[in-house]
Amino acid sequence: MPELYVEPQVLEDAGRSLTAERSTLTEAAGAVVPALGTIAAALPGSRTAAAATQTGAALAAALRSAAAELAQLAAALTAAARDYRAVEHGIAVGIERGGRRT
Questions:
Q1: How far is it, in rounded angstroms, from Cα 28 to Cα 48?
Q2: pLDDT tens-digit map of 39-78
Q3: How far apart are CA 56 and CA 80, in angstroms?
Q4: d(C-alpha 19, C-alpha 25), whole Å
Q5: What's the CA gap between 69 and 90, in Å, rounded?
Q6: CA angle 8-10-12, nearest 5°?
Q7: 6 vs 72, 77, 79, 88, CA distance in Å?
Q8: Which of 18, 67, 69, 100 could form a disulfide with 25 if both were Cys (CB 3.0 to 4.6 A apart)?
Q9: Rounded to two decimals, what is the model's pTM?
């Protein structure tokens, strides 16, 4: 049966990267509505302004949703890294105990 070795540090690094990306998306979600509001104010016609405002709200919601997904994925990777470290530690302790008995 093939074995898979997972490097916990790689999982932790990926989790940190996703957390940073989540932070970027969260900031963008907060900035998009005011930015599109400014753009909408410069556009002619009330329907154009309303469409820009609606687009801004929809885009902000999508960014917040993506940020939430990244937060869940980052948490899962961090938990997986912690679990792998615990397993590695348990195996090391077992090997150490086994070595003392011989």
A1: 22
A2: 888 888 888 888 888 999 999 999 999 999 999 999 999 9
A3: 36
A4: 10
A5: 31
A6: 70
A7: 20, 12, 13, 10
A8: 67
A9: 0.76
